[in-house]
Amino acid sequence: MRDLALLPKAHLHLHFTGSMRVSTLADLARRHGIRLPHVLLDADPLRVPAGERGWFRFQRLYDAARACVRGEDDMRRIVAEAAADDAAEGSGRLEIQVDPTSYAPFVGGLTPALEIVLDEARRASDATGVEVAVVVAASRMRHPLDARTLARLAARHAGDGPGQVVGFGLSNDERRGDTEQFGPAFEIAHRAGLARVPHGGELLGPAHVAEVLDHLHPERLGHGVRSAEDPHVLARVVEDGVALEVCPASNVSLGVYATAADVPLRALVDAGATVALGADDPLLFRSRLLDQYVAAREVHGLDDRALADLARSSVRASRASAATRARLLAAVDAWLADDPAGPTAPGTGPGAV
Ligand SMILES: [Zn+2]
Questions:
Q1: What is the mean pLDDT of residues 289-298?
Q2: Could you tell me the domains of the chain?
Q3: Distance from the CA of 299 to the center of ligand 1, in angstroms?
Q4: Residues within 5 Å of ion ligand 1 by Cβ?
Q5: What is the CA(171)–ligand 1 centre distance, in A?
Q6: Residue numbers annotated as active site
Q7: Mean pLDDT of all residues in the chain?
Q8: What is the pLDDT of residues 223-236, one digit of tens each?
Q9: Where in the numbering of this chain does the Adenosine deaminase domain appear (predicted)?
Q10: Which one of 91, 143, 221, 229 counts the least CB within 10 Å of its CB?
Q11: 351 pLDDT more than 60
Q12: Burial class (CB in 10 A: 0-12, 13-18, 19+), 7
């Protein structure tokens, strides 16, 4: 059996605070004298029921974790560790999502908050070999004019390389805010060459996916799993070439599906959708990128060829340069060609002595 940690992949759905190691969160809380809810530090993944009460609980815990991030050193540490953890799991490209608004008060404003993340993304890329780029995400909980401000800021740092902004997102409770009102912010991002990567179709069903497609014209959808519930919406996702950032552990933790087996991974892939697996918030879901590929193998029964296809999809849906994508795709081919049980395994191939 091939080692999934060695399968080259791109990680397209990971939130800044949510990427944190539990040990790092505990350390930051200690340094800043903050008492955290016990469930943030215990060993179990979060499990909340679907619906507003469940989301509220998730959001409260997320906010408690975010309150421990209080300055430049903390922010740099999060990016550096996210890159190191991705490197250990075979990721060659990380597009980490950050809303700089929450950190701005500690570092002198939105611009320095984003620039710290970008600078550390460059450093982390050099240190780990994982290309780290950034998605700037606005929040549905705030005014659409705030989203426009963030889109303009993101546009100033647009590019495809390490330490550059590659996309513009929209996160938080899908039930909040009027999707259409965020259209102008996404237009600003698009004109700057950024990918449009809003969340949609996780907490809400296919009608929400259609609404996001209509008004925000995404290149990728955060989640979008529930497009599987409507063949017309799913066909539209496929025809429009919208990649889905599917995060199975997140879906189960947030009560969208009862078990990992219920996540419609095969249905999406079989319909022809481009699927890129992601971890979303490993801090709360206790499940990192590699775990998603392991679940695809063990729970959904995908063989190595299908797993390699998932990895290729993640690379193709990334905003990496053509050269980086070609390098990673070649490495996926090499992973698949190197069959540990086959005739070319070390010591057994034709060249063996
Ligand atoms: Zn997310």
A1: 98
A2: 4-337 (3.20.20.140)
A3: 22
A4: 222, 280
A5: 7
A6: 202
A7: 94
A8: 999 999 999 999 99
A9: 8-335
A10: 143
A11: no
A12: buried
